[in-house]
């Protein structure tokens, strides 16, 4: 009996428990507090601590202070942190079907995201009922928007041909690599925290991100041109360590899931405005010229990768899912 209690106590401490009757939930992420993810994380803390009272303390570690791109997935699986919200591309090696969210031109506007990714839809099932995540003790709580991606580099980009030979940083996703190589560019996986210095030093020529990530990391200071292509989506999959979640009392579990849902609602309302404000800040800085593609110009970028890139990754994402999504394109 003593051995069992001692073992259980150690497991609780390792999974985020603290002295007394409460629990500590460490939430690590890689962006600043001003970004859509940073704001949603702070909203989660506010809601969770208000509802859970003394039973739960949420500690937020932003901007790669605790773990960066290269190790946050290991941290959530080991229980070193209890919550993360990585971009879907970060799940490539452990849950490759989540690369469905990396498909270029899957969404035309942020308003399309909720309906396409809701639980019970084909895409929603790939997110919320993902067996690869379940066997790694990762529980999905929600999907947070960052925004639609734009392209930045030091050369103008009005056509896919303008990307020929340009070196772009990507998140570690085979789909994203396929997207850029199909456009004729070179793709280099790289941690988010390293992008500014790599752009500054010429290790890479360009990158793709929503405006909020570009402005908050000051990438516009080392990039002369932005093309508002809105070609892809960065969504953050808000996950919690399943072992930690299962150790929580039922009422604390409820307040955690409710707080995550509330943070997701807040995020969906605020993300578009955060990116619009970031775009205005970039324009006001005078460092970067922003070009908005015409409909035919954007269609040329799309025609180069849809359905070609989508079909290329059907074996990983799922042939039935790709077929369903392509049917909606017609």
Report on the structure:
With 330 residues, the protein is an alpha/beta fold. The chain is 45% helix and 18% strand. The protein is built from 15 helices and 11 strands. A 6-stranded mixed beta sheet has the order 7-6-8-5-9-11. A 5-stranded mixed beta sheet has the order 2-1-3-10-4. Strand 6, helix 7 and strand 7 (186-189) form a beta-alpha-beta unit. Helix 2 runs antiparallel to helix 11 (250-285). It is globular, with a radius of gyration of 20 Å. The model is unreliable at 1-15 (pLDDT under 50).
From the N-terminal CA to the C-terminal CA, the straight-line distance is 64 Å
Low-pLDDT stretches:
1-15
Number of contiguous helices: 15
Work out the strand percent.
15-25%
Rg value: 20 Å
Q: What are its keywords?
A:
330 residues, alpha/beta, six-stranded mixed β-sheet, five-stranded mixed β-sheet, 15 helices, disordered N terminus
Short account of what is shown:
The chain is α/β, with parallel strands linked by helices. Helix content is 45%, strand content 18%.
How would the blueprint of this fold be written?
Blueprint lengths: L1 H13 L8 E6 L7 H17 L3 E6 L10 H7 L4 E2 L28 H5 L4 H7 L2 H4 L3 E11 L1 E4 L13 E4 L3 H9 L3 E4 L5 H7 L4 E4 L1 H6 L8 E4 L4 E9 H6 L2 H36 L3 E4 L2 H11 L2 H5 L1 H4 L1 H11 L1
Parallel strand pairs: 1-2, 1-3, 6-7, 6-8, 9-11
Antiparallel strand pairs: 3-10, 4-10, 5-8, 5-9
Helix pairs in contact: 2-11
């Amino acid at each position: 009996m003593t051995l069992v209690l001692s073992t259980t106590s150690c497991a609780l401490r390792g999974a985020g428990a603290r002295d007394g009757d409460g629990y500590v939930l460490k939430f690590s992420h890689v962006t600043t507090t001003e970004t859509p993810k940073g704001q949603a994380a702070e909203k989660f803390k506010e809601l969770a601590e208000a509802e859970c009272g003394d039973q739960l303390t949420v500690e937020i570690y932003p901007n790669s202070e605790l773990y960066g791109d290269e190790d946050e997935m290991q941290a959530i699986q080991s229980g070193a942190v209890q919550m993360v919200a990585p971009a879907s591309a970060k799940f490539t090696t452990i849950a490759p079907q989540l690369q469905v969210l990396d498909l270029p031109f899957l969404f035309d506007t942020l308003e399309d995201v909720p309906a396409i990714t809701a639980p019970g839809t084909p895409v929603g099932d790939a997110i919320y009922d993902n067996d690869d995540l379940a066997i790694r003790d990762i529980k999905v709580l929600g999907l947070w928007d960052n925004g639609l991606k734009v392209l930045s580099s030091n050369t103008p980009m009005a056509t896919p041909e303008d990307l020929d030979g340009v070196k772009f940083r990507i998140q570690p996703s085979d789909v994203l690599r396929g997207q850029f190589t199909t456009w004729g560019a070179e793709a280099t996986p790289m941690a988010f925290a390293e992008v500014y210095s790599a752009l500054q030093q010429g290790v890479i020529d360009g990158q793709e991100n929503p405006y909020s990530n570009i402005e908050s990391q000051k990438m516009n200071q080392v990039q002369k041109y932005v093309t508002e292509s809105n070609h892809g989506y960065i969504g953050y999959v808000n996950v919690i360590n399943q072992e930690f979640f299962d150790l929580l009392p039922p009422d604390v579990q409820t307040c955690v899931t409710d707080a995550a849902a509330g943070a997701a609602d807040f995020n969906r309302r605020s993300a578009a405005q955060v990116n619009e404000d970031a775009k205005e800040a970039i324009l006001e800085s005078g460092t970067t010229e922003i070009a908005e593609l015409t409909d035919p110009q954007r269609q040329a970028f799309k025609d180069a990768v849809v359905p070609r890139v989508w079909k290329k990754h059907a074996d990983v994402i799922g042939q039935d899912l790709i077929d369903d999504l392509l049917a909606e394109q017609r």
